[in-house]
Amino acid sequence: MKRSLTSILGLAAALVFPASAALAQAPAAPAAKEVIVWHAYRAEEKTAFEKVVAEYNKAAAGKGIKVTTLAVPYDAFADKISAAVPRGKGPDIFIYAQDRLGGWIAAGNTVEPIDFYLDKATKDRYIPTTLEAMTYRKQIFGLPLNYKVITLIYNKKLVTAPPKTSKELVKLAKSLTNKSAGRFGLAYAYSDFYYHACLMNGFGGGVFDAEFKPTLNRKENVKSLDLLLKWIDKEEILPAEPSSALITSLFNEGKAAMVFSGPWFLGEIAKGVDYGLAMLPTLNEADDKPMRPWMTVEGVYVAAPSKNKEAAFDFVKYVTDKPAGVIMALEGRQTPANKFVYEDSKVGADSILKAFRQQVDVAIPMPNLPEMTMVWSPATTAMNSIVKKSAKPKAAMAQAQQSVEKDIAGLRKK
Amino acid sequence: MKDKAGHDELPHLPLHIFLIIFVLIATYPILWVVTIALSGKQSLALATLPDRIAVTEERLVQNIPGLNDEEATAIVEALENAKWIDERGILTLKPERDKVAPLLPAELSKYAEPLHKDLMVCLAEPSTLDRLRAITPWPETFSLENFRAVFRDQPFGRWIINSAVIATATTILGVFLACTAGYAFSRFSFPGRRAGLMSFLVSQMFPGTLMLVPLYIIVVQWLQLGSSRIGLTLIYATTSIPFCVWMLKGYFDTIPKELEEAALIDGASPGVIFWRIVLPLAKPAVAVTALFSFMTGWNEFIQAATFMDKEELYTAPVGLRFFVGGFSQQWGYFSAGAIIVSIPIVILFLFLQKYLVSGLTAGSVKG
Amino acid sequence: MESGSPSHRLRFGIGIGAGAAVAILLGHFLLGGALSNLAEQRETRQGIVTLRALSDLVSRTADGDGLRKAVTEFQKAYPELKSIRVVLLEGASLEASTDPADTGEWAAPRQLSRDEKKNEKPVFDLMQKIRGTVEANREEKTAKEELEIGRLADGSGFSLAGPLEKNGEVTGLVEIKRSSAAAATRPGWITTLLYIAVPILLLVGLSFGVGNKQIPLAICAAVLLIGTIWGYGVQSRSKINREGLAASDAVASTAKTGGERVQSILQGLGIQAEPALNPASWDSDLARRPRAVLTPDLKVDPAKAMSAFAGVGTAVTRATILLIILGVAIALFFGMGWAELFARTLRVHRTAYYYVTPAMVGMIILVFFPFAYGITLSFTDYNIYTTGKPLTEIFNGFQNYVEILTDFQIAKRSADGSWAFNYYNFYWTFFFTIVWTISNVTIGVTLGLILALVLNTKTLALKPIYRVLLVLPWAVPNYITALVWRGMFHQQYGVVNQAIQMFGGSPVSWSDTPFTSFLTALATNGWLSFPFMMVVSLGALQSIPADLYEAARVDGATRWQQFTSITLPSLKPALVPAIILSVVWTFNMFNIIYLVTAGQPAGSTEILITQAYKFAFEKYRYGYAAAYSTVIFGILLVYGVFQNRITKASEGI
After folding, report:
1. A4 pLDDT exceeds 60?
2. CATH code of the domain containing C487
3. Chain A residues whose beta carbon lies within 8 Å of the beta carbon of residue C128
4. CB-based burial, C128-158: b 16+ in 10 Å, e otherwise
5. CA separation (Å) from A209 to C60, C326, C535?
6. Measured between CB atoms, does A17 come within 8 Å of chain B?
7. Could you say which of B8, B202, B218 has the minimum Cβ distance to residue C637?
8. Exposed, middle or buried: residue B140 (CB in 10 Å: 0-12, 13-18, 19+)?
9. Under CATH, which number does the domain B148-362 receive?
């Protein structure tokens, strides 16, 4: 036994050391201009993205640019960027949602501003709000690749005509709800602040004002919460403790007729469930204004310490152009920010892509301020206590506002 | 009861019962993981109750006296049109007595009363058996699709090998360094012994979650060990050493010194004494530390994801997290992957457990 | 001390020599650094005055030829400027330039170029950045740096850039490159060597009076060193002050000539200086706040100029004290014979050190270095907005600790006047962390130990199978099992509530109250942690020789007596460290809380580590989070020492 143990040890040691020595030598001879891209895509999104990269490499071979990609798990992405990029060890380009953008800009030496490269024609390619998401204090730091918005997804077997207004929604949902059987007309992760934002923004509420001051306690926000409570308690159309896993299961089992969710949800719908997409309804309670979901935009950023910025930008421009967008839309099932993509005949004929394209017109870019990360935790606490009835909306939001103000004061002391 | 060695033992039956109960508790959540993995679906498991009894023509004919087939069809149609029941015949809302009659075609309204009664039956509370089924981790349909998908979409096999290599190297390095250090702390008395021993303990006290950036600076910038298995091995080994040192030191303390003294008189060198006499006696503790070190290297995610810049160098936990990050979450794949990565641990434990339970009592060492 | 060792005189001679040499040499280099810093500062200040004179001039001219003419004239008046560039935001155009590279096809005015060799993107980005900062400062009443300073690549000077403003709007960027002229005064080597030699000679002299006695020699050496180093400190300080005042004089004259030159250029262009120029305001910091050292008639206000050096003064004092401590420590190290003792110890116990060193080196590099870094950060206001700054600049002493430990806000008044318990309060979190730790470790250890004892029954069948099945919770990645546990506690669809209803109970909303929420996390973590304790206990049980039990039985001990008098004491050496460590790990068990309760409801189930994490990654206050971590560390350290004292775990045999 002892012998076998030592032989295992020897084998393992032999595997570790020469292997890593060989790998350490590998990057010694790089191609003319290697541009490295980090992204967090997976499955068909990754396949489509890699296809775009391959096409670019073919097209740009003459320029001597070669793009290589690295997929990084989403959960580690932001930490990895924050650790590697400012120390010059990171990629030339990375792709991530705009919510961390402000933080990286404030931290410095992470994201390269790109106004200098941009002409009007390029700026005009994008849905304006998606470019707005890439803008921080009037400077543009990346180009928008794809956006994600929440919309109304319904089970076609249970819902024939999706509701256009909140009154219709409630009426329809009520007729489809049977609480004791665990069936609900409507299900969404309403206690998640991100999801609640559809209602909040619909009422004209928001998290920050124009001067970047937190405004969690504004009265529009409170009104939107009152409506949510009405939906839960009086109309009884929503399930309790709505985690995203629960929503998926309910919808797949035909126990939730309608959900508010985004493109990620479509991948989780089981085979055989016939679903349709529609605009989120307008709110009769808020002068018939539409519900306005938050939009997250995946931006393509050039890393500030990159040595090949021009080459990197060349790729950034390519990947946010129409042909690349069409591939990502049709094969990666993503929703590109380039508005010309939707003029493509195949994309235009795709009802799902069309639905998201419509929804995005009323969507609001999620704030990209560094201070945004301070909002989540107090907002979640507030949402939970409101939903669990341990606090009234007004008091809970005031509490959250206080807490965010305190945190911001702590950060901006100087 | 007395066995050969003369132990008197507790009666075995209650012990078995106790152990079985505990095994059930220990494995129950894992059975859910297995269920999710084998379901072929992606959602986290839920204890869902079965649907209500379906309202079908046959049922109505059987339960409502005097009803014929055509009438039953008409009733079901009426119920469907009114959205009382869904396409499967399942009641979606609570039938109210006074609303049943207007729903039906005039000629059938005489059946309103018995129909309401029957609808109420269809809406009965779930039975204990239903609930039992709901809490039994057993997939409705079996499919190995999740397991296939784990290997299909990405080089998961390669990542498992990486993990195995790194975890094995961590184990060897960690256990070796901990053995020598633990032995010194146990047997020698030297200035700084207490402080040294305490410093190993202290090293576990500073919260590690916030140390990623300084560690990055040291490993990647100073030691130039980014994207290297050696770097990751070193990090994991230092993570596991403190526990290993303390565990081994504690165990060495229980090994009688007389054995070594005798060997010393026979002229054996300290090295020989350590390797030939002390270490074989400490097998149980070495087994524990080996398992611990291996686990440290095997399941770690964030450092592996941060320090490795090449896809072919990722480890299994990094690969697993691809399934659940961000907005979309494929729990089926994740569960399948989690089961796959648990298997080597179980095998390792099977291999180590005979050392784990071999000790001073093994015979040769009396005295 | 012992006979045969060298005399105390010799030892103290070496000691004071080494102490004085190290301390004074360090002082020498520090002074050198401070002086060259001052010289640099002085040039920067002069540069700022020049830049602001230029921006003042340019902003009074009309764009186009008038602007270019003014720039050319200004360049003529300032030979020390290598170049001047004026860039306008509109059209990203280079409006004027005296840079030799900007001639011919590159002559101004033209658009900024993307040409690879030129690469003028940094200038454009700088302009944008400065515009952003000026606007932010105006809107948010902050004072961030509006002027940007940079070293020239060839080391011959520095560049300074600032905003060009018209009618209160930032319209562009003015940049100058200025050569460095004056070399800093260096501290003299003769003085330094004298400061080192004097205490040695004095000690030699004194030793004849005192004799070869240890304590009096030690006192003499210490006093001499304190005196010498303090003297060096005082001298350094006065030197720094002199240089500082001279700098202000130089700046005053730069401002004065600058005012005259700008005035004459304006006259040449036929522009009225309206409102009048105010050269005194040009002497500003990088946020363009006036330093107020110059009076309006461009005289130096000595009191103000001196007060600008107050910070330097305390820094010198602080450095002097540290140097004294260092010097005296070195002197005593040698003088008291500790050096020899140290070397001898290393020699005598070298086997032990050989055995321990490899593990220790790894720990020092990969664990204690990051540690030290964290503790250092805890004394600063390091946050996302101060990442680029040197740590000395954002040092804030114990402020973070005070803020953490004086968080006594147990209750909060909400908007409608009602009071709510503030679970985010440090002391609640601390209390909860203790409850969490104790309950978890108790459950883990008890279950683990009981199972190990049962599984240690010699003739029990199926033991290997039980062991493997029971170790499973440890083997499966806890990311998924923790979430399965959370799902099991779902109010409507959770297994737990279904089971409760099976037996006729009514469902519980587990996440509604702090207590039930705590129970869910406790169940999860207890389930996750007992296998580890079981394995450790199993291993430890093997160290108990069977004959002990036999002897006890012969003496007629009951099973319980055997357990308490044989099993428990024999388990102690291996089990106590495992318990201490699992207390430490549970105390910092981030994952489970994060995944299972996420701190809800209302933050009541946050533990200290999840709070620290929030301060770092949600609130971007790295320094504060580091202080939080250090507090956690302190608490655990106290526990560790205390526990160790009780159980004597590190005492050994």
Report:
1. no
2. 1.10.3720.10
3. 113, 115, 138-139
4. bbbbbbbeebeeeeeeeebbbbeeeeeeebb
5. 36, 54, 57
6. yes
7. B202
8. exposed
9. 1.10.3720.10
Cβ within 8 Å, pair A239-C135: no
Nearest Cβ partner for B87 among A73, A79, A157:
A157
Residues A205/A217, Cβ–Cβ less than 8 Å: no
A399–C388 CB contact, under 8 Å:
no
Task: Check if A180 contacts B (Cβ < 8 Å).
Answer: yes
| Residue A9: band (very low, low, confident or very high) from pLDDT cuts 50, 70, 90 | very low
C-alpha angle B166-B167-B168 in degrees, rounded to nearest 5: 90
What is chain B's pLDDT, residue by residue, as a tens digit (367 residues)?
444 444 556 788 889 999 999 999 999 999 998 988 888 777 776 666 665 666 777 777 877 888 888 888 888 888 877 777 766 666 766 667 677 777 777 777 778 777 877 777 776 666 777 778 878 888 878 888 889 988 887 899 999 999 999 999 999 999 999 999 999 998 888 888 888 888 898 888 888 777 888 899 899 988 999 889 999 999 999 999 999 999 899 888 888 888 888 888 888 887 788 888 888 888 889 999 999 999 999 999 999 999 999 999 999 999 999 888 777 778 889 999 999 999 999 999 999 988 888 755 444 443 3
Task: Give SS3 for A88.
Answer: coil
CA distance A293 to A402: 25
Whether residue A322 lies within 8 A of chain C, CB to CB, comes out as no
The phi, psi pair for A208, rounded to 5°, reads -125, 150
Region A220-227: what's the mean pLDDT?
Answer: 94
Rg, C-alpha atoms of chain C: 36
Tens-place pLDDT, residues C250-300: 889 999 999 999 999 988 888 887 778 888 889 888 888 888 888 888 888
Q: State the helix-helix crossing angle for B229-254 and B156-187, rounded to 10 degrees.
A: 40
**Which chain A positions have a beta carbon within 8 Å of B306's beta carbon?**
76, 79-80, 83-84
Chain A: residue whose CA lies nearest to B222: A87
> Are A83 and B44 in contact (CB < 8 Å)?
no
Helices (H), B40-144: 57-63, 69-81, 97-103, 112-122, 128-134
The most confident of the ranges A4-8, A242-246, A386-390, B334-338 is: B334-338
Q: Which of B327, C597, C419, C411 is nearest to A380 (CA)?
A: C597
Give the gap in angstroms from C-alpha B108 to the nearest C-alpha of chain C: 38
CA distance B178 to B240: 9
With respect to CATH, is domain A151-292+369-411 assigned 3.40.250.10? no
Q: Which of C363, C454, C506 to mutate to test the interface with B (most CBs of B within 10 A)?
A: C363
| Architecture of the domain whose range is A30-148+296-365 | 3-Layer(aba) Sandwich (3.40)
Q: Do C458 and C585 reside in the same domain of the chain?
A: yes
Contact present, B328 and B141 (Cβ < 8 Å): no
Arithmetic mean of pLDDT, C203-226: 86
Tell me the chain B residues in contact with residue C581 when contact means C-beta distances shorter than 8 Å.
201, 204, 242-243, 246
Positions of CATH 1.10.3720.10 in chain B: 148-362
- Whether the CB of A267 is below 8 Å from some CB of chain B: the reply is yes
CB–CB contact C577 B243 (8 Å):
yes
Confidence of residue A180 (pLDDT cuts 50, 70, 90): low
Report d(CA C618, CA C614) in Å as an integer: 5
